[in-house]
Write a structure and sequence with these properties.
Number of helices: 19
CATH topology of the largest domain: Rossmann fold
Distance between the termini: 113 Å
Structural class: alpha/beta
Helix content: 40-55%
CATH class of the largest domain: Alpha Beta
Strand order of the largest sheet: 8-9-7-10-13-6-14
Number of domains: 3
Largest sheet: 7 strands, parallel
CATH superfamily of the largest domain: Tandem AAA-ATPase domain
CATH architecture of the largest domain: 3-Layer(aba) Sandwich
Radius of gyration: 37 Å
Length: about 475
């Protein structure tokens, strides 16, 4: 800079040790020296005598204009777009719909924007019929809460066979990246808590309900903003007289219910025909109203403020037409051919004979008689379906009987074989459901359920015949 530019008010770089200094006063001593009083960047006053050589190392800094409009336009657009998205829900009440690749139906929009979002905190049971799109409704709710800044941590609990479907649909339709809670994730770092480090997570129902260590980790993690439980009827408890049976799944539902702000239960079959079981199920949503011993004619609380149920006949499109075509059932009369009539007669006689045998050899409490009779009656339905269906059913039954004969022979020969239904571990309905959840174990589940039906349930031993 030139010596004449060193004046009061000038902003100079190189005058102070660091930063830009502001000149307060200047006094020249001849042509080769000047005494300068200046303020540094922090406001401190300093005095310095400058020689001609020192003045050559100084740089004059021009004061920038307040509104120069010379910044990066792309950065300004990025900041303004981020702010617009942050406030979008104030101007577009259905922003989750417009930002997703879905075409929602009226009942899906009403469920999310009229039933769920106004509830703070939300405890809700979505019990629409199958095919209503409950996964779409849950995805809309999750994304809408995210956009509004009300959701950061979300846990989805679903049967094992549905977890990957949940992950795919949330990604494809809503752009939500959920991770599956796998054994590798749990054992990767034993000291880490996946419920704490992962904010968007999908867990298997039985994996969580049967692992107490996982439940303890869940309790130690921060509270969830939303927990969604699919096929929630599997979490039901059961009332037997004065005794209440709390299953492991029900206990898990209680754990996640108290560890989340919003709780959404989804099922197409919320009621099993027993009012006391239904009340126990609703206690997961509101324990103050529904928990405790059920008393007939006393506990008739209206749950309509906690749930919504639409049957297929109530589901409409935007034009008012029915979503599902009206079903009209009627009996179609037709004449059987000679071969078909013979087959029908033989199967009917087989069913009648086997049912009579089941009555003769049934247990005293009739449990085995009912189960075997029900299993045999299905053969007539298979016959009405197709000849191939009844052929496969009889073929499978023959294979099971032959297998049992082989096992009986092994026992008689002193081998270490186990007689089906006469020893070994017994599986209850909950364990069989878990086998069905595992694709690799569905065949084992069918075999286990077949043994349970043949021998009158998990608590009854079969009678040889």
């Amino acid at each position: 800079m030139q010596p004449e530019q060193l004046a009061k008010g000038a902003r100079v770089r190189g005058l102070a040790v660091e930063g830009v200094a502001t000149v307060k006063s200047v006094e020249f001593h001849g042509q080769n020296a000047a005494e300068v009083i200046f303020a540094d960047a922090h406001g401190g006053l300093h005095t310095r005598v400058l020689s001609r050589e020192d003045q050559a190392s100084l740089d004059l800094v021009e004061a920038a204009r307040i509104w120069s409009f010379d910044a990066d336009g792309n950065l300004f657009r990025l900041a303004s777009e981020a702010r617009r998205i942050q406030l979008a829900w104030l101007f577009d009440p259905y922003v989750a719909i417009t930002s997703s690749t879905i075409e929602p139906l009226p009942h899906q929009i009403s469920a999310v924007y009229e039933e769920m979002l106004p509830r703070q905190p939300m405890r809700f049971l979505l019990a629409d019929d199958p095919g209503a799109g409950k996964t779409i409704m849950a995805g809309l709710l999750i994304k809408e809460l995210m956009i509004r800044g009300d959701l950061e941590r979300c846990l989805i609990v679903a049967p094992g066979s549905l977890t990957e479907q949940w992950q795919d649909e949330l990604h494809e339709k809503f752009g939500l990246e959920f991770e599956l809670l796998t054994r590798d994730m749990i054992t990767a770092v034993r000291t880490a808590n996946p419920f704490e480090t992962k904010h968007l997570l999908i867990a298997r129902l039985d994996q969580l309900s049967r692992n107490e260590e996982l439940q303890e980790r869940l309790k130690m993690a921060p509270e969830w903003d939303l927990v969604v439980c699919d096929e929630a009827h599997r979490m039901s408890g059961h009332v037997f007289g004065d005794e209440i049976k709390y299953t492991k799944r029900y206990t898990m539902g209680e754990v996640v219910g108290v560890h989340t702000r919003h709780l959404l239960l989804m099922t197409a079959t919320p009621h099993n025909g027993k009012e006391e079981d239904f009340q126990l199920f609703l206690a997961l949503l509101d324990g103050d109203r529904f928990a405790g011993r059920f008393r007939e004619n006393e506990h008739k609380a209206d749950p309509s403020d906690l749930m919504r149920r639409l049957v297929k006949e109530d589901l409409l499109r935007f034009d008012g037409s029915k979503l599902f075509p009206e079903r009209k059932s009627y009996t179609a009369q037709y004449e059987l051919s000679t071969d078909e009539a013979h087959l029908y007669s033989e199967v009917t006689e087989y069913v009648r004979t086997e049912m009579n045998r089941a009555e003769r050899f049934g247990d005293k409490d009739g449990a085995r008689k009912v189960n075997v009779g029900f299993a045999l009656m299905t053969l007539q339905r298979r016959l009405a379906s197709s000849p191939e269906a009844i052929f496969r059913s009889i073929q499978r039954r023959r294979e099971r009987l032959e297998s049992r004969i082989r096992e009986e022979k092994l026992v008689l020969r002193g081998k270490d074989g186990i007689l089906a239904g006469d020893g070994g571990p017994q599986l209850d309905e909950e364990a069989i459901d878990e086998l069905y959840d595992d694709p690799a174990g569905r065949a084992r589940g069918r075999r286990a359920e077949g043994r349970r039906l043949r021998h009158g349930g998990a608590n009854h031993r079969g009678t040889r015949s």
